[in-house]
From TrEMBL:
Name under which the protein is recorded: Cobalt-precorrin-5B C(1)-methyltransferase
EC number, UniProt record: 2.1.1.195
EC top class, as a word: transferase
Naturally occurring in which organism (per UniProt): Azospirillum griseum
Record key words, sorted: Cobalamin biosynthesis, Methyltransferase, S-adenosyl-L-methionine, Transferase
Stored HAMAP family: CbiD
GO molecular function: cobalt-precorrin-5B C1-methyltransferase activity
Gene Ontology biological process terms, A to Z: anaerobic cobalamin biosynthetic process; methylation
Family recorded in the similarity comment: Belongs to the CbiD family.
Reaction it catalyzes: Co-precorrin-5B + S-adenosyl-L-methionine = Co-precorrin-6A + S-adenosyl-L-homocysteine
Pathway(s) served: Cofactor biosynthesis; adenosylcobalamin biosynthesis; cob(II)yrinate a,c-diamide from sirohydrochlorin (anaerobic route): step 6/10
Pfam family name, one: CbiD
SUPFAM superfamilies to which the protein is assigned, alphabetical: CbiD-like
Amino acid sequence: MDDDLDSSVETGVDAGKVDANDTPLRRGWTTGTCATAAARAATEALFGGDFPDPVTVTLPGGQQPAFALAWTDRGMDAATGPWAAAGIVKDAGDDPDVTHGALIRARVWCGPAGSGVTFRAGDGVGTVTLPGLPLAVGEPAINPVPRAMIAQAVQEAANQAGQPADLVVEVGVENGAVLAKRTMNGRLGIVGGLSILGTTGIVVPYSCAAWIASIQRGIDVARAAGLTHVAACTGNRSEQAVTARYGLCEQALIDMGDFAGGTLKHLRRQPIARLSLCGGFAKFGKLARGLLDLHSKRSSVDLDWLADQLALLGAAPDLIAQTRSANTAAQVLGLAQEAGIPLADHVATLARATALATLDGAPVAVEVLITDRQGTIVGGAPGW
């Protein structure tokens, strides 16, 4: 994300979303739903049936979508006995999901008597290596809701076949290790591939839920690692700037993006001793005004407000007038710098006040660092 250019991660809301041409946006299916469908089909085939095509699964909300199978296989393993496998091509709808079009596979075989349903990470699914996530270290990165969905689906299939539901489910994603490089998994300590995700089973186009969940998990991992200083950044350049200043490790870097509110509210519940907020002047100008959602769809740069702040700082009338008619916040910052007025420091101080108010007494010391479009720190408000 660009620190001072608006992202498009939140351009829709729920049912009724449309694109720029007023065309309704399609919902899609999570990796968890696709893995559930693949596991259900594989289990039915394992117990002597045909691969059901399409295969129907039940989502947490009670919906029962059906999925076409893209791949099937059967075999015999000397150690585990017969197995069956199936694959579903993920359709994320109109969401720009990194896993859209990926083949989600599940291979199922019988486990020891009384073992219940257990999970393995196949090719392309990661393994948890750091504490702080809702899964134990060493577990496959298949989140709790998808696990429950998969377990329910394979148990139903086993019961219908009159077989015990002592099953091993191995979930994989074709090319998942490569796709994972485009996610936050590395910072979260998930290595080797993607996570199998989902809470409702449905992908809402351009939803902010996944991003906020990633922020929360990042904070949780940092706490579990015993880190006492994290940096929440609005984009790549601000992240590079704060890293250069402090030499923070990867787990200390929180990709906040536009979600200042989501970041601060989670830190209020799960505090870390020191927080550096680092971001672009335009975005932190919004935070300085008390706005917690920094996306352009819900908050905009207020040039009149910036002009009023310059007046408070003793700016000349012509500079104030230029500010009111400026094109961008970056232009205003440049004018203030030329006049020797510490506008970035002033905005940082007000942004810090908003952050502290949102933290509501949580034991978190906060500093704010403001960068320009070149990634240079041009202002700040110290917190320690």
